[in-house]
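Morning F.,

Quick status update on the modeling queue. The single chain you submitted on Monday has been processed. Sequence for confirmation:
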Amino acid sequence: MWAKRGTRPRALKQQQFTYTYIYGAICPSTAQAVGLILPSANTACMSLHIDEISKSIPVGRHALIIMDGAGWHQESHNRDNVSILKIPPYSPELNPCEQVWQYIKDKWLKNRSYKDYEDILNVACEAWQNFAADGERVQNLCSRKWAKI
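Structure tokens below.
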């Protein structure tokens, strides 16, 4: 938010505490993004997301998903065409999706107030779809020289 130096601008603040979660995965080499908007951050929802990723992988290919140590990020989510690689604790710089979440928050989600849960869902879906549709942005935010095969 831009403001005149020495002033304290007012920003919207949501008073209710209803959440939804964007689960997203990125392939920087193809600029493909797969995501789901789900009501909880837990193992069951992560399993649904991994299933969705698995369905999107072309036959004969294999995906390596980089994840942090969140409790619902489990190696048990491995599939025939999907493997999980956990990064060391306190190393978000190794997870390119951290920049994605910050970009989505900054561009579409922050300083807003939502009417109800449906409004939250709609905005989250729109934010993810806008991001996923911008292949150049996907590649710029998520490509890493050390992660090329």
